[in-house]
Each structure stands twice: as C-alpha cells, then as structure tokens.
Amino acid sequence: MSLYCQADGPRDAPVVVLGPSLGTTTGLWAPQLPALTERWRVLRYDLPGHGQSPPPGGGRTLTVDDLAAQVLEILDAEGVTRFAHAGVSLGGAVGAALALMAPDRVASLVLCCTSPRFGPPERWRERAALVRREGVGPVADTAAARWFTPGFTGAEPYVAMLRATDPAGYAACCDALAAFDITDRLADIAAPTLVIAGAEDAPTPPAGHGDVLAARIPAAELVVVDGAGHLANVERPGPVTDAIVRHLDRTWKGLPA
Questions:
Q1: CB under 8 Å to 169, separation ≥6 — which residues?
Q2: Cα dihedral 207, 232, 182, 163 sign
Q3: Of 45, 71, 235, 251, which has the fewest Cβ atoms less than 10 A away?
Q4: 248 contacts 16 by C-beta, under 8 angstroms
C-alpha cells in the first residue's frame, strides 16, 4: 500500500511535509499552502483510506510507526533526504514518530493539536469497532463538535472529508492511535520543535497534551492559539500559519531535497 502524495511549490526549495488529522485529507492544509509554497516545496499526503490513498488490505491494523514508514517511502521515491514535518493530531504523531525513527532526516518539526498519548486505548478501539460495524456516519455526525468551537461556521467541508473516508482506513488509524504512546521517548526528539495548541481544543487540550510535548522535548516552543479548537489551522489560520512560518524560517533553510 502506498500513500497518495501531492507536491506544490518550487522543486528546488527545502521540503516541508504536511500530515493530516484522522478523518481529513490533504485539503486540511489548504489555508497554509499559499504562505508555505512561497519558500518551501510542500508535500502533503493522505492517510490510508482517506482522500486518494487506498485503504489497508485484509482488515489490517496499523501503528503510527507503520504510517511513518510509509511517509518515508514517499520521500525516498521523491529523492528527499532531509525535510521538515508539520502535522495535525494523528499527523503530528506521525511527525514525532519520524523524528524518532529517522532523526538524521527530520530537520524541523511542528506538532499541532496533538499529543504523546491520545487517551485510553479502549476509547479508540471502541471507535474502530463502531466504524467497522456501522461505517463513518456516526463519527461524522459529531465531528464538528469535536473539531471546532461552537461559533465556527466553516466545518462542513472538513466533515465532508470524513464522510468520504473508507471505514477500514479510518478504523485502522484508530487502532494506530490506540497503540501510540511516546511519553517516555520525548526527550529523544532532537529536531527543533514547535508545539501549537488550540486553547479550546477538546480532544487534545493544551493541559496534559501540548504542554507535555513542550516540556519534555528539548528546547521546544509552545504556542497556544486563542479561539481555536482541534483543527486550529483551519479555525485560526492566521496565527497558526504565522507561527509555522516563523519556526521554519528559523530552523529549516537548509539544502533542498
């Protein structure tokens, strides 16, 4: 299984890889794309069964390390040796796994609305079982409330991404979240790291999630974005984009791919 990847921006620029959250596609990062493609070559990927990526075959379960290895396969095929990675939620977990798996290749890291551990594993296994049994409809019906603050009016395009997701792919990614816990390995992340948290993020609030990442990853910076829920880059694109660009300007002006 190979993940779908979309490339934008100048081919001779340093590479930034953007990872989506569970239930979303490459389109999650559309608000940041104009600013990032001015100075970086941007590669966006879809998770298994999401967007244009095929679902895992044979009811296969996945780990976050599996997803990270698939991202490395994309980058190898593209001839990319060093890169920055920015990811939202599950995409952030993939980025952290990449920084641990291939520290010589990850030049810079942005962890947005994510965590070293996404709560009790049973919750994710129950969601995976629900989706395998009933499809993605039940989780799509409640997605806007999980992802955004109550006053946000632009949720529908992102909920539509979830409604179009293959149930097997979504469930396999839930399995990956259930098994993910790098709390005791955060000190081993060597890449310069920016942690972005939505002040009103319900699934991964700053307290207990973003603050743990920032405290335990050496020299990491924490930015808390007011008025933002779980998909902070969508709900508050201005401050999130500015923070990412500042971080990349400081840490990733290196050699192109």
A1: 47, 48, 49, 50, 53, 55, 56
A2: positive
A3: 251
A4: yes
Tokens of 228: 């933002």
Q: 């952290």: which residue's tokens? A: 96
Closest CA to 173 of 127, 235, 116, 219: 127
Distance (Å, rounded) from C-alpha 57 to C-alpha 48? 10
Whether domain 5-251 has CATH 3.40.50.1460: the reply is no
Q: pTM above 0.90?
A: yes
- Are the C-beta atoms of 81 and 257 separated by less than 8 Å? yes
pLDDT in tens, 197-253: 999 999 999 999 999 999 999 999 999 999 999 999 999 999 999 999 999 999 998
CA distance 79 to 69: 15
Q: Are 74 and 98 in contact (CB under 8 A)?
A: no
Q: What is the C-alpha separation between 72 and 138, in angstroms, rounded?
A: 33
- Report the candidate in 29, 93, 90, 84 with the shortest Cα–Cα distance to residue 241: 29
